[in-house]
Structure formats: C-alpha cells, structure tokens
C-alpha cells in the first residue's frame, strides 16, 4: 500500500536533536530507506576532502621552528626520513615506512656515542595525516611537558625528532638509536570523514627495531574535538610510570587510567535508560 | 622433503619451488602478495599455477604442511582436528575436481555440512583460487552456518547487522544516540558491538553495562560486545561484568596471534568463562572474531604464504571455538594489502566462501579507508554480492562514517537497501521485536514507521534533563 499523497517524500527523523551529542551521522532522514540527496552529497564532499588530506605534506621546517621557539629548545628538532621516498611508495610499502633511510640512521648514529642514556624519546611522525601533527603536536607536547615536570620522577628527555613518510614502528628504531628507555611516537592517524586531524600516541618500553604491536600501548584520537590534550597526557604519563616501574610495555601493561569509573555508579547514565 | 612443481606452456617452463609458492602464484592479483614478494610475476604464470594447482589431489594438503607442524599451533590444530570420516566423500578429488563437485548438484547444503570437518583451510583456499566470483557466491550460498545466542543468525533468507555505535571518546550519551538511531533503522540483530576508544578493563566494563541496560530495558533479542582484547574481557568476567560475547582479532598463524597477544589456550579459557555465565537464551555461541587478509603479513608472521591462505587458516582458529559471529574486515587494513575496489571485492567474496565452506558463521565488514582507491560505489557492489551469497551479517553504522576508527563501512540505510533489493529479513526473534516495538509499519515490505515509536518517544523526553558529558 503506497503512502498517502500528502506524506513527504523525504522523511525526517524526529531524533535529529541527538546530533548535539555526537559527530556520528545520525538522524539523516530517508527517501524510502535510502539517503536523501543532500546527505548523500555532504558525504561525498567529506570523502573527497579526506582523500585530499592523505596526500598533503608535512611542513617540517615550519613545525621544527615552531617547536624550537615554543619550548625554547637549544637545538632544532632533528629531521629524519623513512625509506619510503614519496607518498605513493609510502602507501604501498609499509615496510619502508617502518625503517629510517641510511642518511637518517647515520645522522643519529653519529650523535649516538655522545648521547647518554635517557628516559624518553619523543618522535613526531607524519603518518597518514600530516595535518594532525602540524596542528596538534605543539599543544599536546605542552601538556605532556607540564605533567612530566610535575611528576615525582625526573624524566631525562632525548632531543625531539620529526620523521617524514613514517609509520608507527619507525619510532622503535629512533628510540633505540637515541639510547632511550622508552619511546613515544606521535603520529597522524588515517583521516576519517569527520576527523582529518587525529593524532595517535604509541609508547614502547625498551624500543628496538623489529618489535611487534603487542609491545606497544596506544592512545588514539587526540585532537581538539576528540580526546583532550591534558587528558591524553595524563593517561600517557600513567602508562609511562607503570612501564618504568615494571620495565615493560604493551599487552602486559594494561591502561588503568580509568579504573576509577568502576566506583561511579552513574557513569552509564543516558537518556535511553534514564528512569 | 618439500616437493616442487613444474609446468611447461609453449616454450616456457615454469617452476614453483614449494606448495606455498604454488598457492601464492595461483592467487588473483592483490597488493599484499606483491608486498610480500610472493605474487605471480606475469598473468600467464598465475594461470599456469592455477592449472598445476587444479591437478593436485586434495590429500596433498594433509601430507604437506604449509607451515611446519612443529613450528605452529594452528597447523597442529588443522591436522589434529581433521576428520577423516567427513573427508571420505571428497578424498579422491583433485583441487580442480573439488571445484566441479562444489558446484554440482551432489553438493547440497546438507552434504556440504557433512563434509565440513574434512575440509582444511588450505583446501578451501586452494579451490577458491580457481573459482570465479560467481562460483564463490553460488557455493557460498549453499553453505549455511546457523548460530544462536539471544537470537538465531545465518538462517536462509536472513541478513543480520552489527550495530556499531562507536564514539571517539566513548561518551555514553553519544553512544546511546547512535544505538537509538540504529535500532530505529532496524539494525543490531547480529550484535550491538562497540570498539572502545580507550582500550582498558574499566572502560570496557562501563560500556558492557551501558549496552546491557539498554538491551534489558527494551527487551531486545540481541547481544552486546565490547571489542577489547580477550584478556581484558576475561578480567571483566572476573569482575562480574555483564559479558555476552568475547571478542578477539585472530590470524592464521601462531606468530600472528602471538603478536596480538594471545594463543589458542587463551581463547579456550575465554570461551569457557563466557559460557559459564549462561547469558544466552536460544543458544550459547559466545565468541566474536574478526579477521582480514593481510594481518599475518602486517605482523611479519606469514611464513611466505599468500595472504588469502593465511586468512583461511584463521577460520580454523575460529571454528574451534564455536563463534556466534566471524567478521572479515575486508577493506580496513589499507591499500598496501588490498589496493582498490576490485581487490577488496574479490577478497570479500573469497573470505565469505572459505569461511562458510569451513563452517564458520561469516559476516563481512564491507569497508574502505580514505587512503584506498575505493568509494561508496565499490561498497554497494560488494554489499549486494554478499547479500546474494547469503552472508550472515554486515556492519551498520550511522551514515557509513565510523567517527572513532576513521573508515567507512555499511550504513543502517545500506542494510535496508540490501534487505529490500534482495528480499532478505532480520533474524526472526529480532524481526518480531521490530514489529512489536512499531519500528516498522510493515516489516515484510521493509516499510519503516514515519512516527517515533512510543517507547523511544518516552526516552527522548528525558533528554532535556540530560547533562552534556565531557568524556
């Protein structure tokens, strides 16, 4: 039985106002059971923009300058490059993105004998979103440095490094060459339709080339509209402290930063189950 | 020890140094095999490899392990659990004859079910390499795998969906909003499953409780799952959390799974722990696994095998633990493994076929990332093909956009398109619930209700009292 002639072609969803609570594409309405034209085209635009973001390059000089000024560094962050020469190669050869090219390795090795053992090396990597690193690296580092300073342990830091065309695992090689007990990789995550600027944090204790994912801990979606910088830094510091205490990282080191939610009985409260 | 294989075409002689190499070179082209350096060097070499493979007796795979028995617990699982009796009706076949047999009228759904335990993942992978997409669809459709927990999934003519209400900060109101959206579009009969943004025990327990409360309040005949590491879920069970399904990503080699931080004993422990809770009402399949071609290579744990063969071996892991759902996340891993829409489509059909042939309740996350050469049209095609092939379930997410995992998968709308275009229905218990709740005007013609159903209108009235959550 067809609907009566006065009913609209596009049916709006009366729960549209829930969009205030999430960036998810809810309450889109429907034509029959399909997407209305306007929503269809909005999606196509977002996809086009995300595809373009993947191919955008990191302005390494600009970032290095900015970080040196912001944190009053004696030397500019070191500029490194993976074995993937360009984006096309990077996309098809993740193995190249996990290792430093020869020039970068030599650059770090030359400095190594004079590098004393340090507690933490921070490695900035473009990954799949240069935009994420460009925009979020500085505010996150600001939060992290402040929390590290307030920690009861002293944290001796390796010089900052910035890697182009890199993947997560490249941090392990950099960390090892910098004689660091732990490495933090800050990397641009694959851009989503609603989040082209998402930063991922990966921590490895005792970094060495060839380590697998089970040795890393990850904090994802660090960006202004996602996990806030201060909170991300707080969680990371908890992980770092536990890693240092137990001399390990990865699956064996659980992220306990939210263990307190167990205590709060109201924490699952939402409109669907409110009484 | 290991045999080598040869063939001559015209004046060219082809040599394949091992069974693994022969399998790899017989595989339809994809970027992951190129990355691994195991791909055929020419189109001719690929077809020659397929011709050589077609002549091999199926028993070859029982006599020659692709990864040595001593080195890999999955090889041991495959060999030790092989059922000679079930194998008897097909033991005389070559790989090429096996394709003919699968397509023949001898291979009815009942017969296919009875030989399942006699088929190894390598046999399934080998025959799939000789099959065209339509063969994978037709045989896949004949292989029915039905599982149950609070509803029944995989019945002929049914297509279920996982409602995936992910949120980048696990905000409970944000998640609840996506759950509501999904339910009102008829999604969620396979599972309501959240990938937590923060992967720890406390967060997982919180999300489990959230979903449990929703399922109980609205009496939804479905199950929940937080997709956290198996060891986290074990801890959650110890803490008394309401765990329906235990999740784990699995791969087809022991080294892959070790890189994921578990082994077969961990999964056995998890299955037993979840079953002991006895939370299912119509069945007790308690595991939810995810797989995907390329994971073994990504973990540098592929032993020189092609990625599709590694993937099929993951189904041996899956079937050991009686899962409710197995989901091949086909386009998530990126263009270095499956380059474009064509490769993603082929892989999705292969995975569905191999899984079903081995007795695994296959669903598919029909998806792509923003760095792959794929778009919504490619997803429409694969979604339609899998619907025709009788795939057990697909993902459902608001507007195709996963705002936490940053990739695109099938939407609530997409699932309704597939149900409408192909005449498929939700799981029977869930379908009844959709009608009772007045979410659909007419569930048989997939006509949604234009009005907000009463139970949910009531809930939305609570909204103005709702504080905006910060985390």
TrEMBL record, chain A:
Chief site of localization: other
Assembly and oligomerization: The basic unit is a heterodimer which dimerizes to form tetramers. The heterotetramers trimerize; 6 large subunits form a core ring with 6 small subunits projecting outwards.
Record's keyword terms, sorted: Bacterial microcompartment, Cobalamin, Cobalt, Lyase
Requisite cofactors: adenosylcob(III)alamin
EC id: 4.3.1.7
InterPro entries assigned: EutC, EutC_C, EutC_N
Note describing how the cofactor binds: Binds between the large and small subunits.
Top-level taxon of the source organism: Bacteria
Subcellular localization: Bacterial microcompartment
One Pfam family hit: EutC
Pathway: Amine and polyamine degradation; ethanolamine degradation
GO-annotated molecular function: cobalamin binding; ethanolamine ammonia-lyase activity
Catalytic activity from the UniProt record: ethanolamine = acetaldehyde + NH4(+)
Similarity annotation: Belongs to the EutC family.
GO biological process: amino acid metabolic process; ethanolamine catabolic process
Residues noted as binding adenosylcob(III)alamin in the record, renumbered to the chain: 168, 189, 218
NCBIfam families membership: PRK05465.1
Name listed for the protein in its UniProt record: Ethanolamine ammonia-lyase small subunit
GO CC annotations on file: ethanolamine ammonia-lyase complex; ethanolamine degradation polyhedral organelle
Physiological role: Catalyzes the deamination of various vicinal amino-alcohols to oxo compounds. Allows this organism to utilize ethanolamine as the sole source of nitrogen and carbon in the presence of external vitamin B12.
From TrEMBL, chain B:
Cofactor(s) in the UniProt record: adenosylcob(III)alamin
Predominant subcellular localization, coarse grouping: other
Keywords: Bacterial microcompartment, Cobalamin, Cobalt, Lyase
Class of this enzyme: lyase
EC number per UniProt: 4.3.1.7
Subunit annotation: The basic unit is a heterodimer which dimerizes to form tetramers. The heterotetramers trimerize; 6 large subunits form a core ring with 6 small subunits projecting outwards.
PANTHER family assigned to the protein according to its UniProt record, in alphabetical order: ETHANOLAMINE AMMONIA-LYASE HEAVY CHAIN (PTHR39329), ETHANOLAMINE AMMONIA-LYASE LARGE SUBUNIT (PTHR39329:SF1)
Protein name per the record: Ethanolamine ammonia-lyase large subunit
Gene name per UniProt: eutB
């Amino acid at each position: 039985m067809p609907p009566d002639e006065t009913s609209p072609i596009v049916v709006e969803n009366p729960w549209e106002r829930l969009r205030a609570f999430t960036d998810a594409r809810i309450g889109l309405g429907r034509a029959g059971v399909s997407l209305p034209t306007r929503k269809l085209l909005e999606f196509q635009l977002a996809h086009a923009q995300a595809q373009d973001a993947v191919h955008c390059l990191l302005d390494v000089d600009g970032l290095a300058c900015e970080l040196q000024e912001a944190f009053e560094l004696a030397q500019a962050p070191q500029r490194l490059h993976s074995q993937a020469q360009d984006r096309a190669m990077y996309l098809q050869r993740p193995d190249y993105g996990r290792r430093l090219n020869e020039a970068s390795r030599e650059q770090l090795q030359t400095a190594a004998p004079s590098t004393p053992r340090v507690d933490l090396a921070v490695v900035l990597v473009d990954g799949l979103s240069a935009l994420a690193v460009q925009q979020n690296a500085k505010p996150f580092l600001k939060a992290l440095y402040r929390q590290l300073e307030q920690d009861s342990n002293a944290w001796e830091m390796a010089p900052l490094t910035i890697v182009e065309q890199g993947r997560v695992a490249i941090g392990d090689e950099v960390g090892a060459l910098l004689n660091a007990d732990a490495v933090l990789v800050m990397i641009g995550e694959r851009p989503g339709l609603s989040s082209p600027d998402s930063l991922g944090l990966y921590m490895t204790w005792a970094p060495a080339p060839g380590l697998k994912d089970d040795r890393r801990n990850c904090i994802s979606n660090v960006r202004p509209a996602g996990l806030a910088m201060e909170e991300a830094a707080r969680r990371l510091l908890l992980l770092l402290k536990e890693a240092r205490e137990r001399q390990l990282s990865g699956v064996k080191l659980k992220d306990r930063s939210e263990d307190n939610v167990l205590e709060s009985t109201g924490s699952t409260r939402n409109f669907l189950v409110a009484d | 020890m290991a045999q080598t294989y040869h063939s001559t075409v015209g004046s060219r002689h082809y040599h394949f140094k091992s069974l693994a190499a022969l399998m790899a070179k017989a595989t339809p082209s994809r970027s992951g095999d190129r990355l691994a350096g195991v791909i055929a060097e020419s189109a001719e070499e690929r077809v020659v490899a397929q011709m050589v493979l077609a002549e091999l007796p199926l028993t070859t795979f029982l006599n020659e392990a692709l990864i040595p028995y001593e080195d890999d617990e999955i090889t041991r699982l495959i060999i030790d659990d092989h059922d000679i009796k079930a194998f008897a009706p097909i033991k005389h076949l070559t790989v090429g004859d096996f394709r003919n047999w699968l397509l023949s009228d001898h291979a009815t759904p009942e017969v296919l079910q009875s030989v399942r335990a006699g088929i190894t993942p390598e046999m399934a992978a080998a025959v799939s390499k000789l099959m065209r997409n339509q063969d994978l669809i037709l045989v896949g459709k004949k292989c029915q795998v039905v599982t149950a927990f609070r509803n029944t999934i995989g019945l002929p003519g049914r297509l279920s969906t996982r409602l995936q209400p992910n949120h980048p900060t696990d905000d409970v109101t944000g998640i609840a909003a996506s759950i509501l959206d999904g339910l009102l579009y008829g999604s969620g009969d396979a599972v309501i499953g959240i990938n937590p943004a923060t992967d720890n025990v406390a967060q997982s327990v919180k999300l489990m409780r959230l979903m449990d409360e929703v399922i109980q309040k609205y009496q939804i005949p479905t199950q929940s799952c937080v997709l956290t590491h198996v060891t986290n879920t074990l801890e959650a069970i110890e803490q008394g959390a309401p765990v329906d399904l235990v999740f784990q990503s699995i791969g087809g080699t022991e080294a892959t799974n070790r890189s994921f931080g578990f082994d077969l004993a961990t999964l056995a422990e998890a299955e037993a722990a979840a079953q002991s809770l006895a939370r299912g009402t119509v069945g007790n399949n308690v595991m939810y696994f995810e797989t995907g071609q390329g994971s073994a290579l990504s973990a540098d744990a592929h032993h020189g095998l092609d990625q599709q063969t590694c993937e099929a071996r993951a189904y041996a892991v899956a079937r050991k633990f009686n899962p409710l759902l197995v989901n091949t996340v086909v386009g998530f891993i990126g263009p270095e493994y499956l380059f474009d829409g064509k490769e993603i489509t082929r892989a999705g059909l292969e995975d569905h076929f191999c899984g079903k042939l081995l007795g695994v309740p296959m669903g598919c996350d029909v998806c792509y990332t923003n760095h792959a050469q794929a778009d919504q049209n490619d997803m429409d095609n694969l979604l339609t093909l899998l619907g025709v092939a009788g795939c057990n379930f697909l993902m459902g997410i608001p507007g195709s956009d996963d705002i936490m995992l940053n990739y695109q998968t099938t939407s609530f709308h997409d699932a309704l398109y597939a149900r409408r275009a192909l005449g498929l229905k939700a799981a029977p218990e869930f379908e009844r619930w959709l009608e009772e709740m007045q979410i659909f005007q007419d569930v048989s013609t997939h006509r949604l209700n234009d009005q907000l159903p009463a139970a949910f209108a009531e809930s939305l009235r609570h909204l103005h009292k709702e504080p905006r959550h910060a985390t």
